[in-house]
């Protein structure tokens, strides 16, 4: 891991930039944008979407209130994000997604359900975390079903790697958490190794955690469970 020698009082690097010389964990897909998604982007985007800037984000200004703020990396079509935000109106949810149909899908759900506690940034999550998320500012991070990159030669593209987790931890408040979920067992094993290897994180379970009540099962997860497929949740807290 490339990092400079300056460290804070906990020994965490101050100037490590995970965006330098990295392999991206996603592939940008065009995807078909439905008329409803396009309309949601045009009509609701100005209110709920935040442009990417290399400037720390002011959560109070963005959400127009002071509240615990949860970052979700890669929200897909947004159904899980919307359900969680609807069940926790007292918290702010900042969703980051690169794919336009997913952004349109979540915006439509925001409108349909009258949600006011979600904001969206359509950009690479690593760059967002590096430039827009201040140190010790997040109460939690959700990373649900990231691309597992099944082939061995592609494993290096997985998002959950030691340098990224180490850097992400610097953005958590004391007591803040990282919640990952995957339906690919080899990736679950890697996640467990990486998260347990970060000295500033503490596992809330012996190994894998029971699915927290706030994370709803997706339709694919329910179908997989009927077929005997596993799903692994990991919840780690910042010491």
Structural write-up:
This protein has eight helices and seven strands. With 239 residues, it is α/β, with parallel strands linked by helices. It has a single domain (35-238), classed as Vaccinia Virus protein VP39 (Rossmann fold). Strands 3-2-1-4-5-7-6 form a seven-stranded mixed sheet, with helices on both faces. Strand 2, helix 4 and strand 3 (118-121) form a beta-alpha-beta unit. Helix 1 packs across helix 4 (100-113) and helix 3 runs parallel beside helix 4 (100-113).
List keywords for this structure.
SAM-dependent_MTases_sf; 239 residues; EC 2.1.1.33; 7 strands; seven-stranded mixed beta sheet; Rossmann fold; globular; 8 helices; 18% strand; alpha/beta
List segments where confidence is low: pLDDT < 50 over at least 5 consecutive residues: 1-16
Q: Architecture, according to CATH?
A: 3-Layer(aba) Sandwich
Secondary structure tally, helices: 8
Structural class: alpha/beta
Identify the quaternary structure here: single chain
By DSSP, the count of extended strands is 7
GO cellular component, one term: tRNA methyltransferase complex
Function: Catalyzes the formation of N(7)-methylguanine at position 46 (m7G46) in tRNA.
Enzyme class: transferase
Family: Belongs to the class I-like SAM-binding methyltransferase superfamily. TrmB family.
């Amino acid at each position: 891991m490339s990092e400079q020698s300056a460290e804070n009082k906990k020994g965490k690097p101050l100037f490590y930039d995970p965006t330098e010389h990295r392999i991206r964990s996603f592939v940008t897909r065009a995807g078909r944008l439905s008329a409803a998604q396009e309309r949601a982007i045009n009509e609701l985007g100005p209110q709920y979407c935040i442009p990417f800037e290399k400037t720390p984000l002011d959560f109070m200004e963005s959400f127009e209130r002071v509240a615990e703020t949860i970052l979700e990396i890669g929200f897909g079509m947004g159904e899980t994000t919307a359900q969680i935000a609807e069940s926790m109106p007292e918290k702010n949810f900042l969703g980051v997604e690169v794919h336009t149909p997913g952004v349109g899908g979540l915006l439509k759900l925001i409108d349909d359900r009258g949600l006011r506690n979600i904001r969206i940034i359509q950009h690479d999550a690593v760059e967002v975390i590096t430039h827009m998320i201040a140190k010790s500012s997040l109460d939690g991070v959700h990373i649900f079903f990231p691309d597992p990159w099944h082939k061995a030669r592609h494993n290096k593209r997985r998002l959950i790697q030691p340098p990224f987790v180490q850097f992400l931890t610097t953005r958590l408040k004391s007591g803040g958490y990282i919640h990952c979920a995957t339906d690919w067992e080899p990736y679950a094993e890697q996640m467990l190794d990486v998260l347990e290897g970060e000295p500033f994180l503490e596992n809330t379970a012996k190994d894998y955690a029971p699915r927290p009540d706030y994370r709803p099962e997706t339709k694919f997860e329910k179908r997989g469970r009927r077929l005997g497929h596993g799903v692994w949740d990991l919840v780690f807290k910042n010491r």
